[in-house]
Amino acid sequence: MTANARIGWIGIGRMGYAMAERLAKAGADVTVWNRTRAKAEPLAAAGAKIALTLPELAACEIVFCMVSTWDDVREVIAGSGGLLSDKSRAPKLVIECSSISLEGSAELRALLAKRGVELLAAPVSGNAKVIKAGRLSFVCSGPKSAYDTALPYLRMIAPAASYVGEGELSRIVKICHNVFLGVVTQSLSEITVLAQKAGVPRHAFLEFINQSVMGSTFSRYKTPAFVNLDFKVTFTPQLLRKDLDLGLDAARRYEVPMPLASLTRDIIQTLIGRGMTEQDFAQLLLLEAEASGVKLAPENVPVSDGLS
Ligand SMILES: NC(=O)c1ccc[n+]([C@@H]2O[C@H](COP(=O)([O-])OP(=O)(O)OC[C@H]3O[C@@H](n4cnc5c(N)ncnc54)[C@H](OP(=O)(O)O)[C@@H]3O)[C@@H](O)[C@H]2O)c1
């Protein structure tokens, strides 16, 4: 297999779109499929071909997958009408990037192995804007040879890829990452509201945090949302709840107490129960403000997200 392999791409959502776009723009031979085809069509302008059916992608050597949950992955790969539904052909390698459980990933590996297909489990850190800024990172597990084959293509999408070992190990790394994402966002919401209620404008507070040793790429790129209350969705509360649930399931399996993750999971559930599902999960800030009797208004201060 060369760096000129035919690449298939399943799932042109917020993440899949931005990732496949980078691959196509880097000159890879990419054919994409999305359940809602209209979302995939603009990728033709970046040089991607649009498939009408999933089994068409089985003619590719490598197929990436970026959908929502393990049930969705199983459906697009092994469901009737899925990638493997044409018994006469299958890709050599599937690179599965959705955030799913260790168990789902192991089941996927077994399903693919029956058809002689290798799996690289390759979830990611970063949202669509991070991808566009060239700052995404992959965490990968599976056969080392599959990682070596995938690497030239991973590099077209993201500057950083880590190989953490055999099997499904990358899944637990990603689950831990997103538990941290939820807990950190809730903590950032709490301290931002506390500082504001005591009289500190959010932009001033976050400017300090971002420049301190506690500041991070993440706290910087969430700052515009926290300051100016722009909650255009990057990641939905439902997908974050999925990841907290995956973390808590793993914690039960490995008998690790995760009190902060449990609390955060239920706070995200409250966000969802309030119907705050159409905008970004960073609306955790609004929930915290409401619980504190603070009415938030956009500060209308230009602040950098540290990405652009
Ligand atoms: N957004 C982030 O910041 C972020 C960061 C890292 C990892 N992730 C993970 O990446 C994955 C995708 O997230 P996203 O934000 O891109 O989600 P999204 O915008 O909701 O996109 C989901 C994609 O999956 C497809 N899909 C879902 N169920 C399907 C099914 N049963 N059959 C066929 N296609 C199906 C959707 O197709 P339609 O367009 O037809 O609905 C869409 O292309 C998730 O596992 C998420 O946890 C997200």
What order do the helices and strands come in, and which of them pair?
Blueprint: E1 6-10, H1 14-25, E2 29-33, H2 37-40, E3 49-50, E4 62-65, H3 70-78, E5 93-96, H4 102-113, E6 118-121, E7 124-125, H5 128-132, E8 137-141, H6 144-157, E9 160-165, H7 169-197, H8 202-211, H9 217-228, H10 237-254, H11 259-273, H12 284-291
Parallel strand pairs: 1-2, 1-4, 2-3, 4-5, 5-6, 8-9
Antiparallel strand pairs: 7-8
Bound molecules: NADP nicotinamide-adenine-dinucleotide phosphate.
Residues 11-16, 34-36, 39, 66-68, 72, 75-76, 98-99, 124, 127, 234-235, 239 line the site of NADP nicotinamide-adenine-dinucleotide phosphate.
Secondary-structure element sequence?
Answer: EHEHEEHEHEEHEHEHHHHHH
> How can the largest sheet be summarized?
6 strands, parallel
Structural class: alpha/beta
Poorly predicted tracts of residues:
none
What average pLDDT do the residues reach? 97
Gist?
With 308 residues, this protein is α/β, with parallel strands linked by helices.
Q: Can you tell me about this structure?
A:
With 308 residues, the protein is α/β, with parallel strands linked by helices. 48% of the residues lie in helices and 12% in strands. It has 12 helices and 9 strands. The chain has helices spanning 14-25, 37-40, 70-78, 102-113, 128-132, 144-157, 169-197, 202-211, 217-228, 237-254, 259-273, 284-291; strands at 6-10, 29-33, 49-50, 62-65, 93-96, 118-121, 124-125, 137-141, 160-165. The strands form 2 sheets. A 6-stranded parallel beta sheet has the order 3-2-1-4-5-6, with helices on both faces. Strands 7-8-9 form a 3-stranded mixed beta sheet. Strand 5, helix 4 and strand 6 (118-121) form a beta-alpha-beta unit. The site of NADP nicotinamide-adenine-dinucleotide phosphate has 23 residues, from helix 1 and helix 3.
